[in-house]
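cache lookup: miss for this entity combination. No prior model stored, computing from scratch. Input as submitted by user K.M.:
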Amino acid sequence: MAEQKPGELLQGTLDMLILKTLIRGPMHGYGVAEFIQQTSEDVLRVEEGALYPALHRLELRGLLVSEWGVSENNRRAKFYRLTALGRKHLAEDAARWRRVTLAIGRIMEPA
Amino acid sequence: METGNTGHRAHYGARIAEGEFGEFAASLYLKLRALVKRRELDRDLEDELQIHLSMREEQYMANSGPGNRGQSAALQRFGNVAGIKERCRDLWTFKWFETLLHDVRYAARQIRRSPGFAASAAVTLALGIGATTAVYSLLAAILWRPVPLPDVGSLVFVYQSAPGQAMPYTFAPAGDIDDIRRETTVIDNIAMWALGRHSLVDAGGEALVAESARVSPNLFDMLHVQPALGRGFLPGEDQPGRDRVVVLGHDLWRQHFGADPGVIGRTIRLDASNFTVVGVMPPDFRFPRSWRELWVPLVLTPENRASHNSTGVEAAGRVRAGRTLAQAAAELDAIAARLEGRYPETNQKRRFVALPFYRYWYGDVASAFAALMLGASVFVLLIACVNVANLQFARAAGRSREVAVRVALGSGRTRLIRQLLTESLVLAAAGAVLGLIVAKWTLGLFKAGIPAEMRHYMPGWADIGLNGQAFRFTLAAALASGIVAGLAPALRSLRVDLTESLKEGGQASTMGRGRSRWRAVLVAGEIAMATVLLVGSVLMVRGFRALAAGGAQLRPAAMLTMRLAISGEKYRESYQVANFYRELLQRAAAIPGVQSAVAATGLPYSRRYPNGRFSIEGREKRPGEEPGAAIQAVTPDYFKTMFVPLLSGRFLSDGDGARATAAALISASAAQRWWKGVDPVGKAIRIGGRGPVSIVGVVGDIPYTALSRDPSPTIYVPFAQTPDREMDIGLRTSGDPMLVAPEIRAVVRAMDPELPITNLNTMETLIRQESFGLALMAGLMGASGLLALALSAVGVYGVMAYSISGRTHETGIRMALGARRGQVIAMLFRSGVWSALVGLLLGLIPAWGIARVMQSFIFGVKAGDAAAFVGVPLLLMAASAVAIYVPAVRGTRTDPIRALRHE
């Protein structure tokens, strides 16, 4: 966990992306991984080794809840849903993210 | 911009904290749920990951057509399924807790495998933990009771000290306190009091004596305690004439006035005068110090108030808000210096002492006793820990292969240490459970052993027992001893030589250097601690016995004592007082079974010390430094009755009457102190400012108190010349003194029906009561000492037995090479005795220091007691010699051939 391969996501960032993904509605783990990969046009590839511990950690923090349901092609799957606390967290994370990227942008591309 | 930014951040921080608590609560709930539904959690996790894998597999198959590659590709992408599952699983569990459970289970399994070891370790720890818990509970019940007063932090107590005084501080004269009260800017509302006794005649007509305090009217205000019923004293009620008011204690009110609220305003008889009851204090009010049954105003005449030479009073006030005790002390120093200049006759070298509440309440001596008792029991516990540590060492040696295997297989060091420590903590927990039984039993024994008449003086007697506080203490003691006993062996067992230990039969043929050093340290440490403890307990026990033996010369079992204090109009003149006692003694001597009847100001062991100052005629008088001695007014028969020998001159006789020349006898210790090398007979002294008194003889010293081994210099004056209203009466009887008790009661009643008798007891009982605290300490210390001796002997035996068993191979080689058995035994014996000797010397150094400290505050203890400093070393060396010799002999009994095959 200590070492970061290029292209792997920082944990905080992964948490934020998971929360952002789930704002569209309940999803299972596989769906979250696929969504992030597709939406980022294959730039961000979510490692399962990081995804599931992250989902469980978020659930334990009360930002997500999970329940068993039936997937689009009629299979049993565990779905994660955002809680109110999760939404609040996402809003805070997003705000901070915007501030940081803006700041970095100013430094990298001075007007 | 700057401020706005910080403000924003602070706000954000608060929000995070709030959110964090929510998250903590959520995760705790979820984890607890997962703990209950552990199997469900595992299945869900398994399912979730499997479903992910099969979805991925389907996707691969859909993309690249049918084939078996999908499954392996999915697995490849996923990575270590078991690892991820483990990581998720860890998130859901209380990891440290479950590891702990696992360790405990493992430890229990290990311990079950060697029940002999476990039992001896647990029992040893139980003795140590039990002793410590019992002592702690005892102190908590008797000494560290909750203080029944509000705001004690700002209370400051004022005493005086002067060079040459035996006590570090004594009561200051009222005049000094009055000056302090006027001049202080730091202390508020100073109140004064003096302890006393009042005879109370209640409705039944029977006179009883109540423990009382004479207090200045502001005392209750100063203490922030108001009566539960009625009122306290008013300003001005300390003036003669307005002072006949009394406040009752709750117990007295309940027991003698039937808890009647109508008692307020009623008149009661105290010391043959009428007093009006104005108030009743709340039930738990205890002040001064011990319990008091009633309070009356402390009357100070203008002369008292101005006196800087009278017997002192106790005083306390409140440190003003914002000021400190140190400031109060500094100010008292300055006032003392001013008073020294103002009253050079009386106040030379006099200083004032400011004590905080806890020193007043608990007392320096009691606190030192507490420290001593607790220290002794902690030493017992430490010795027990050393024994258990040694057992663990022995076991660790036997388990070195197991540890080596586990280290070789990659177990972490910390994990192993934790596991070994857990083992010792489990043992300590077992020891704690047994220890609580030991403590409960000890406390029960102790509680039952306190005589009924002493319970009265121990407000905490009923509370002696185990409570939540004691359990917490036991828990802490067990935890500490588990770590102390387990850490060193755990660390030691990790220093294994892997290749050596893993080899077949890999037991080192000779003791490793490190291990034998540990053995030496253990033996030395154990003996050192036992030395300190035994020296302490021998000093204590011998000190106590010396005091108890001192009283034997008075034949106290054949002596009845009582105290009378006559008062009122009938005894206004001193001839009336003298007549009363003369007649009383005549009637008492006529009782069958009474051989002689005497009166004295303070009989031996009566706890009345009539100390006074005197001056020697013809010598320079130095103010504030006059010699002080016990001034005893006695009847002529006193010396014969108390077996006081005449050393020179003559005894007092009936001829030394009221009209004869004033005469006095001095004790040998007084002669030794003030007439060294001179014959005191014929010399004259002045006592308390009266006319000259001629010394007619010197008599031997007799003990007056169980609280000192040194005789107190005493001056005896004839009662006929200095009659006193309050006197002790002693009857020498031919049989059991208590048999004549009803008859002497009848005699007193016939002479004055309102006169109460107090302290009616045999002198033997008085001695027992006075030395009760010492007996208690001596018993406890003696028991700790014996326990320490037994534990350390067993411990040394264990260490030696183990170390010699580890050297079987070596002794086998030596004997095979031709060494005689005796030589081998001598070799083993020498090495053990050396360690013991080192321990003994190491222990004697602190023991000497402790002996000096004990001598300074425990009556009767002499630091240079030969029995302690010669006897204890001899005893310990003998005990350790046996404990070393026996295993040495047993260890060499084996046939060398078998010893060499031993592995």
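stored under new cache key. The radius of gyration of chain B is 38 Å.
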